[in-house]
Automatic annotation (TrEMBL):
Keyword rRNA processing: no
Molecular functions (GO terms): O-acyltransferase activity
Residue ranges annotated for the Wax synthase domain, each copy included: 279-358
InterPro entries: Wax_synthase (IPR044851), Wax_synthase_dom (IPR032805)
Location(s), subcellular: Membrane
Main location: membrane
Organism: Fusarium tricinctum
Top-rank taxon, per record: Eukaryota
Name by which UniProt lists this protein: Membrane bound O-acyl transferase family-domain-containing protein
Family (UniProt): Belongs to the wax synthase family.
Amino acid sequence: MQEPDIQPSLQWTPSGSLKAAIPCALGVGISFYSLSRKSYHPRFTLLFISLPIIVAFQSSNEFSADDFVNEIFARFLLIFLAHQSFLHCILAPEEVDIERRRLSDLSSKYQTVQKQDVSRLHSRQGAPRNWIFAYKMLFNARCLGTKWQVRHANPSGEATMKSNPSPRVKFIMKRLGVLLLRYIFLCLYHDPSFHLYMPDGIPWKQEDFSSGNQQLFWRFLFSFPALEAQARHFVTRGAFIRIYIVCDQLIPDYLILSSYHDILSIIAVGLHIDTPEEWPPLFGQIGKAYSVRKYWSHFWHLLVYRSFSAHAEYMIVKVTGTRKRTTLTRYANNACVFVLSGLMHALVERTLNPDSCSRCGCWATFWRYCLQVVAIISEEVFQRVIAKLEHRLIPGEVRSMFIATMHRITGYIWVIFWTLWSKEFTFFPQAYCLKQQIAA
């Protein structure tokens, strides 16, 4: 959820939008040209990509009149820059070139028109440029169809590139139907007449975020049946506020990002630029999110995982001096990925809302991401202990029939509780400060 700024937002103008759009287009263009052929100076190339992207990021609050669109644009710039850093600096140029040739050969199997002669132009040195590979990898943050593809990015578990593509019309009609449903749900979600009003009404009051109300779960939730009527009313309102804030953060992100993804997939597949297999859903299945780890790895989008994980591994190797994969390095990699994600969101918030950040800080989201590592480690330790106890105390037949279901139910409850508590713990102090500033 985005709190209102203390100062009014900048008035949008077309010239302000161009200040962000032109440098962004320049950075994307340089990346596209660079990816079309093996780069012999990748770090130097990344510098030329980074400069216009950073300029565009600094002007992202002027990109449009909608704060949410500006936030998505700013996040896109940082994710794009991390992806280009992965392709140009983390990977060896020879490794990228091998994948470039492989994808070129694979794509030719299902292209109805031979485009090799058109897509490969020769530079002055005579080296071929592969524009198809440049296009395929430019925004492919999940590295779909490559050997670097993120696990769980493709729900079918099959290779992204296939020699027999799925029917395009069926794919487009299905995505159009889903897109329409998302649009209807968004309209209902933002329609005030359909809002579920909390006790004492919404929007929330400054007292809802006061220091005495910032630890609802630990203070009252588990003793709810024994509370008096007035205290129950207080706890009910507090629970509704936390649910509302979490939903207000997750639902728009899920629906709007998925809608953008669907629109782009319809255009790309409809124009025969891509195949349906190259556009799996952006998000996974919510039913698989019965642990915090699975929430992030199976449900939430994985746009930052490949680039952030690669940068994290690079830093770990520099520190430890070894590439050996251990439990400790795996947790260290997870921690680095969440820290980088938190820094990205904090940087976006500081760029878009400098006034509120200077008064109340903008680290709530950063700490919420950092806490995810604590949850992942805790639940894995707990799961190992429980698994050993079950193996000793419960017969295998019962374990296979009953315990698996109980694990899922308990897991869903745990994920919901953790999501609400981590939002309460990190966001409420900042929200209280913002409310104080607005009231003043």
